[in-house]
UniProtKB/TrEMBL annotation:
It comes from Streptomyces uncialis. Belongs to the acetyltransferase Eis family. Homohexamer; trimer of dimers. SUPFAM superfamilies: Acyl-CoA N-acyltransferases (Nat), SCP-like. The active site is at residues 123, 413. PROSITE patterns: GNAT. The keyword Transferase applies. HAMAP family: Eis. InterPro entries: Acetyltransf_17, Acetyltransferase_Eis, Acyl_CoA_acyltransferase, Eis_dom, GNAT_dom, NAcTrfase_Eis, SCP2_sterol-bd_dom_sf. This is Acetyltransferase. One of its GO terms (molecular function) is aminoglycoside N-acetyltransferase activity. Acetyl-CoA binds at residues 82-84, 90-95, 118-119.
């Protein structure tokens, strides 16, 4: 049997890689425009191929992302297009590709890897765990949206989607500063991942509609991106893809707008944060219905010390963490995490390896779940996934890792 080799997929093999991806995901090869857009994505990614001789039998791509973390931004590999030929399952191909990705991350100083899962049972064993969670919300738009606060009454403007990105980018960047888990967007990302004319999963959807709120000539105080669709019986739905606002009143105005679109009797918003103020200021929770909660972005700490020092902490902390990591053995160690306020009041951490007795023992997977502030370590102690050696240590870590707003992302890749 020929040994497996893991190397970069050259541009000449990208079409072969796409054929492999369509085979694995049981998809008919798409039309030329869609195929070309997939090729464009792969060309923007780092591409790991599993080769058996000259045959490509595995594909893993990674977007070079800048991911918001508490108090800053860190580089992250955004894993996508993971595919293993059905003839080569259970032969360690995926493990080999992920190991190669982690090796490249270490070489390039990338401390984090992230992904959205197609099968949730797969990626935990590689050290990934959900770091953000989201709701799907459905609003009954057959009557005006009942609100407990007064919406911002500044004017609304509809922007051409093809030229909207420069206008709404400042508001998106402000949201990134407020919430961890958000991806920085360049022009290519806005055009291909956020505002493409055609919605790939459903070609009956409209092109994106972009509405901003604010006085003309001023940066928007908020925006909403949505698409519309009408079913066979003539009932319309407004599908909200993203809504950002500088205040609850701005958010209320944008939700009121989406719930008042003529001929749409329902608003469906996929991927809203668990602490979305809509769920508080809605006057009738029967009208605003949470239909699903689901894990969003899965995270992996490829370099534990760099990740822990790359974010700020919300309180002083001095703990010894014993981290286990079967996938990246250099991470497996005891670390003293010490966070103190700096001159600006932010709590920055120092992380040193130590032989001192641990306060907490946890796998890198559980550390990833807590890293952005979306999971309380004490919950993981109660679940038997984290061992607490010093009473109250999990509560101290939870207090220090907590953020004002829950981490959240809408950038699926």
């Amino acid at each position: 049997m020929t040994a497996m080799e893991y190397r970069t997929i050259p541009e000449a093999d990208v079409q072969t890689a796409l054929d492999l991806h369509y085979l694995v995901f049981l998809e008919k090869a798409p039309e030329d425009d869609t195929r070309e857009s997939h090729r464009d994505v792969l060309l923007h990614c780092d591409r790991v191929g599993a080769y058996e001789g000259d045959d490509l039998v595995g594909l893993l791509a990674a977007h070079p992302l800048d991911l918001s973390v508490p108090g800053g931004t860190l580089p992250a590999a955004g894993v996508t297009f993971v595919s293993v030929a059905p003839t080569h399952r259970r032969r360690g191909v995926l493990s080999g590709m992920i190991a190669e990705l982690f090796r490249r991350c270490a070489d390039r100083g990338v401390p984090l890897a992230s992904l959205w899962v197609s099968e949730a049972a797969i990626y935990g064993r590689f050290g990934f765990d959900p770091a953000t969670h989201s709701y799907t919300v459905t609003i009954d738009a057959t009557h005006p949206l009942d609100l407990r606060i007064t919406p911002d009454e500044r004017p609304l403007r509809l922007l051409p989607f093809a030229s909207a990105a420069p206008v709404i980018t400042p508001r998106h960047e402000a949201a990134r500063r407020d919430r961890a888990g958000r991806v920085a967007r360049d022009d290519w990302w806005w055009r291909t991942q956020v505002l493409p004319e055609t919605f790939e999963e459903d070609d009956e959807m409209s092109e994106p509609r972009v509405v901003v709120l604010g006085d003309p000539g001023e940066p928007p105080a908020g925006y909403v991106v949505y698409r519309t669709k009408t079913d066979d019986e003539g009932r319309g739905t407004a599908h909200v893809e993203e809504l950002e606002a500088e205040s609850p009143e701005v958010a209320a105005a944008l939700w009121r707008y989406t719930a008042s679109i003529d001929l749409a009797d329902k608003v469906r918003a996929w991927g809203r944060p668990l602490d979305d103020p809509l769920l508080r200021f809605a006057g009738d929770r029967d009208q605003v219905d949470v239909t699903r909660e689901f894990p969003g972005l899965w995270l992996r700490l490829v370099d534990v010390p760099a990740a822990l020092t790359g974010r700020t902490w919300s309180a002083p902390v001095d703990l010894v963490l014993e981290v286990t990591d079967a996938g990246v053995p250099r991470n497996a160690s005891r670390y003293r995490l010490t966070a103190k306020p700096d001159a600006g009041g932010a709590h920055r951490a120092e992380v040193t390896r130590t032989d001192d007795a641990p306060d907490l023992t946890l796998d890198v997977r559980e550390l990833a779940a807590c890293y952005l502030g979306g999971t309380d370590p004490a919950e993981l102690v109660r679940a038997g996934l984290v061992e607490e050696h010093r009473p109250g240590a999990a509560a101290l870590l939870g207090q220090a890792s907590r953020t004002e707003l829950l981490p959240h992302t809408t950038d699926e890749f």
